[in-house]
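Re: [ENG-882] Designed sequences occasionally contain unexpected residues at chain ends

Forwarding the minimal case from QA. Structure tokens:
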């Protein structure tokens, strides 16, 4: 008598990940659709030889949608949306492996793998001249005002020029990289009157100016390790006659008076003389006829 015995495989083993904890460093400028964790690294095994179903979630707020898996049976993790280091620099993903579909009512065994993603800032932005103002809270663009200064005609200044709103200065806005900046004049330097210190950005004179024409210099700030990252700022240098004396007011104190209810742009009158408008005047000994 032959008796055929068939052993039924009971679902009594959970899926097992080869690595339950994985950490990945990912450059900020990684291209969309790039695999960041390979299928082999996150493919779970099951002693019951069941088909494994995968699901990926994130535990960090506002980082959902950046990473995804290729399919419910393919756990390869890839970048689904472009990264921005200024929005977040790390996230934690949870990869679930089930031996039954999510919608199944059968007994299901589950395993979880934790994937920590650390984003490394990339060299994505050109230097910023300071001071500058962010454009509508966009951290990728910072608008700076032109620099301005002045020199005396027919006079050589031995010191770095004083500029407004401050000295020429640029920084690498990718602050975790913070590449060194070098400066050069790339335009407007007629007769090579000016030079700029490559390291400090200080603007100095090479020779005297004999014409009253202003200079409109273009100064370039370039990153040392990536010359493709550069910015250009405008520096207006006005040429003026030398001033030996400061202006002064003819009086130390001026007293005026106004009437209640006067419309805008009404005169302020001299105190004690309601018929004479108050006039504030200053003099300068350099310009006695002005």
């Amino acid at each position: 008598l032959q008796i055929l015995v068939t052993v039924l495989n009971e679902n009594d083993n959970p899926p097992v990940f080869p690595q339950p904890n994985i950490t990945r460093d990912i450059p900020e400028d990684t291209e969309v659709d790039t695999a960041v964790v390979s299928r082999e690294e996150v493919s779970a095994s099951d002693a019951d030889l069941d088909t494994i179903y995968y699901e990926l979630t994130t535990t960090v707020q506002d980082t959902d949608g950046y990473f995804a898996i290729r399919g419910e049976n393919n756990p390869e993790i890839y970048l689904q949306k472009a990264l921005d280091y200024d929005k977040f620099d790390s996230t934690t993903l949870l990869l679930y492996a089930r031996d039954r579909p999510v919608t199944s009512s059968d007994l299901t065994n589950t395993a979880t793998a934790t994937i920590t993603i650390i984003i490394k800032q990339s060299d994505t932005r050109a230097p910023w001249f300071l001071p500058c103002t962010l454009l509508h809270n966009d951290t990728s663009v910072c608008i700076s005002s032109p620099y301005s200064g002045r020199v005396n005609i027919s006079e050589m200044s031995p010191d770095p020029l004083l500029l407004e709103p401050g000295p020429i200065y640029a920084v690498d806005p990718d602050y975790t990289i913070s590449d060194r900046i070098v400066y050069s004049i790339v335009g407007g330097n007629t007769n090579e009157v000016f030079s700029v210190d490559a390291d400090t950005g200080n603007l100095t004179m090479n020779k005297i100016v004999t014409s009253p024409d202003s200079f409109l210099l273009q100064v370039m700030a370039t990153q040392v390790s990536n010359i493709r990252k550069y910015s250009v700022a405008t520096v207006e240098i006005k040429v003026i006659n030398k001033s030996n004396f400061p202006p002064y007011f003819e009086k130390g104190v001026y007293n005026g008076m106004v009437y209640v209810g006067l419309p805008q742009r009404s005169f302020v009158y001299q105190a004690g003389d309601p018929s004479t408008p108050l006039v504030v005047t200053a003099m300068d000994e350099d310009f006695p006829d002005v």
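QA comment: On inspection the terminal residues look reasonable. The chain is about 0% helix and 40% strand. Proposing we downgrade this to a documentation issue.
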